[in-house]
Amino acid sequence: MKHFYLLLALSSFLVSALPAAAQISIDEVNAEQEGVTFRDRLKSTPVDVDYFSLARYKAERAAIRKERNYLEIKADLQGSLTSYNDSWIAVSGGDNSIALTATLFLKHTFTKNLFTVETIFNAKMGYNRMRVETTNDDGSTDSNGVWFKNLDEFDISVSPAFKMSKNWSYGSIFKFRSQFVNGYVSRTEQERKHLKSTFMTPGYLDISFGFTYNCPVKKFPIVINLSPLSLNATFAESDWIRRRQVDKDGNEIKPAYSYGIEDPDKTSKYEGGSSIQIDFDRTFGKSNYLHYKTRISGFYGWMTDLGQKNKIRDYTEYRLAYEKWLSGGQNIKDKPRLPIHPTVRWENTLEIYATKYIKTTLNFQLYYNRAQNLDVQTNTQLLVGLTYTFKNK
């Protein structure tokens, strides 16, 4: 039995040592091609990094406009009223009167980088009413209340400029000045023959190119404009005023000489020269109860003066030559002329605020224009009334 197990183990060993082989056959398979579609059932939301917000855009644009633009509007209404009844007038005398003055001031400044343009509009209109006595043709007198203009002026200026440094800039100034309504000789002389001025008679246009200095000291905010090249134009569009002038007795002055325009066939004159303008504007006190501003401007038409014909410097010689010219043919080309004098205008305004809406104003103006008058012209006003100021920042 032991020999049988030994023989079986030996046979198994011999069988496992021999090599083995097998044959396999594979049949050809033709598989059909089909398209495969992947489906994404989840909703996708695109996210843009530069998300646009209309509200944010409008807010940014409004902030930029407010930063670049400064707007100030000031309106004043000032006046006085005096009234007496008949009993008072019979005992103590007196006169009923009304005085009203309205002013409007607008200032807009646009700034972008180094460029700045400033626009200023200033208008003043004043009337007063007093009782005056007029004599009729039959010798009787009538007493009536009459309105008479005591203040009428408006001016607009546009000043574009480019900054050169912290305190200096270069640019130009365009200024126009005239009045709204007719001006007459006096309260009792308000007919057409007494007309002295009207809209665009006179009218003034100033154009200057130069440099502007802004003082950096806040307590001394002075601005100086120096314009080596300037043009001054004077207009008198009313033929009635320009061609017909009367003296204090009502007699006509011939030839007509209105606002420096000597030729009666012309409605304007132009002079070239240089100009200067100095501005000072400051408020005082913690509540800004005191406000003072002044402006002095001057123009000298030296370019036109150099080419002026028949110029006589001595005034006595000029009067003799002028009287000789009057007795002659009165040709405007032969008329003797004095040298062109500088034009000076000085404006002062002092405002005292009792409250935010009540103030007292003192105005003083000095004007010298030899083409209009040989003497210096002055104007002073003291006003009390209401005021309102709007500022966007």
Automatic annotation (TrEMBL):
It comes from the Bacteria. Pfam families: DUF3078 (PF11276). Keywords: Signal. Residues 1-22 form the signal peptide. This is DUF3078 domain-containing protein.
